[in-house]
Design a protein that fits this description.
alpha/beta; seven-stranded mixed beta sheet; 14 helices; pyridoxal phosphate; binds pyridoxal-5'-phosphate; Aminotrans_3
Length: about 450
């Protein structure tokens, strides 16, 4: 039976929330939902406009960039125009046997921007799928080279690589969301979590342990898969770029491929275009996503070297057997290309540096709070780590009451603001992070 409320638009906020709770899954949520989401009516610049005030606020400064993707803010004229222009030409065509300018242009932009040696681009529809494709590339490379037994992965603990099956198998096996699946996932090789601290020197004992682990498992390892410099959804931790050099050398010495997952760190977030640049390391396969489209549409990519591509193409199945229906979607590719133009058309490193300074100053008071274990900032990432699980409801209330949108998780309250966030808004966000850490 059609619901009469659905024929009549708009829905009231109350109706919308009732239907949402009854029918709509939210990320990592129960069904029916227990926490009431805020209804967003529109978004512009760095502000989300709510359908109804929450804790006295109708507009919220976005401290999350919509899960780290909306780096240029919302309703951006150049990005809007890119989507509109492409929409008038075609919103989608299949990518098998056909191609188009937005995808070709984007691929070339990514090759030019990414670390040296990455020459070939597979466009995927989400970050998790790009990691699946990266893993498939590595396994198939070794299969083609007559080494099918090289099909395990190695990573370090504390990581996050997505929610589909292969990515889950290299997520942190303990603290993360995926320990539930321990018995069902491929069993990968785990090194301990990299020692904390971006500025810290490389811990030689740890480096030796990692080298030994790669060497010991070399015969069964297809690849090492890690997030460079920043472990994001696994706990917002920073480590020395030196460990990427350790991994690169260990992989080269033992004949193992290196996959860097820059889905969170890519496109300037850590102060360099890619976090791997802090170490001057180039991977065999690179995953990008999140900020790729400026937060407009879902798209990610796996880039690989000619060695990997040729290896696959010389095998008994000389093709990469992967092809999503919406691969290379023209709307997403067009807005991604425009987003990279906008990024490169400004002194983005100066903007990220400006936000970094603002966050450093604004988060400093959190060090004095009881229950705060650490305060850390790198590029446009600011983190307050507590010594206990955050009370998400209390923390969110404190932030929203100050006019800021944050989404804390586990033991952290953090922000990854859009690069266009002005100094006053950065200060508001930092103040809200401190207030949320205090309340939560
Ligand atoms: C978000 C994220 C993913 C997963 O991307 P989705 O687009 O959510 O599938 C993978 N790796 C890292 C490092 C991420 O931050």
């Amino acid at each position: 039976m059609p619901d009469p409320r659905i024929a009549r638009l708009p829905l009231s906020t109350g109706e919308l929330l009732a239907l949402d709770r009854r029918h709509v899954w939210h990320p990592y949520g129960p069904m029916p939902g227990r926490q009431e989401p805020l209804v967003v009516e529109s978004a512009s610049g760095v502000r989300l406009r709510l359908a109804e005030p929450a804790y006295g606020r109708r507009e919220l400064v976005d401290g999350m960039s919509s899960w780290w993707s909306a780096v240029h803010g919302y309703n951006h004229p150049v990005l809007n125009e890119a989507v509109r222009g492409q929409l008038e030409r075609m919103s989608h065509v299949m990518f098998g046997g056909l191609t188009h300018e937005p995808a070709v242009r984007l691929a070339k932009q990514l090759v030019d921007l990414s670390p040296a040696g990455l020459e070939h681009v597979f466009l995927a529809d989400s970050g998790s799928v790009s990691v699946e494709v990266a893993v498939k590339m590595c396994l198939q490379y070794w299969r083609s080279r007559g080494r099918p037994e090289k099909r395990r992965l190695m990573t370090w603990r504390g990581g996050y690589h997505g929610d589909t099956w292969q990515p889950m198998s290299v997520c942190d096996p303990d603290g993360g969301m995926h320990h539930l699946w321990a018995g069902s996932l491929p069993r990968q090789v785990f090194a301990p979590r990299p020692p904390d601290g971006f500025e810290e020197p490389v811990d030689e004992a740890y480096a030796r342990e990692v080298r030994e682990l790669v060497a010991r498992h070399a015969d069964e390892l297809a690849a090492v898969v890690v997030e460079p410099v920043v472990q994001g959804a696994g706990g917002m931790r920073f480590h020395s770029p030196g460990y990427l050099k350790v991994l690169r050398e260990a992989c080269d010495a033992s004949g193992v491929l290196l996959v860097l997952d820059e889905i969170a760190t890519g496109f300037g977030r850590t102060g360099r275009m890619f976090a791997a640049e802090h170490a001057d390391v180039a991977p065999d396969v690179l995953c990008v996503g999140k900020a790729l489209t400026g937060g407009y549409l879902t798209m990610a990519a796996a880039l690989c070297t000619s060695r990997v591509a040729e290896g696959i193409s010389e095998g008994e199945v000389p093709v990469l057997a992967h092809g999503p229906t919406f691969m290379g979607n023209p709307l997403a590719a067009a807005v991604a290309g425009a987003s990279l133009d906008v990024l490169l058309g400004q002194d983005w490193a100066a903007e990220v540096g400006r936000i970094e300074s603002g966050l450093r100053a604004g988060l400093e008071p959190a060090r004095q709070l009881p229950g705060v274990r650490d305060v850390r900032v790198l590029g446009a990432i600011g983190v307050v780590e507590l010594d206990h699980e955050v009370d998400v409801a209390a923390a969110t209330r404190a932030a929203v009451g100050r006019g800021v949108w944050l989404r804390p998780f586990r033991d952290t309250v953090y922000t990854m603001p859009p690069y266009v966030t002005g100094d006053e808004d950065v200060a508001s966000i930092a103040g809200a992070v401190v207030a949320a850490a205090s309340a939560g």
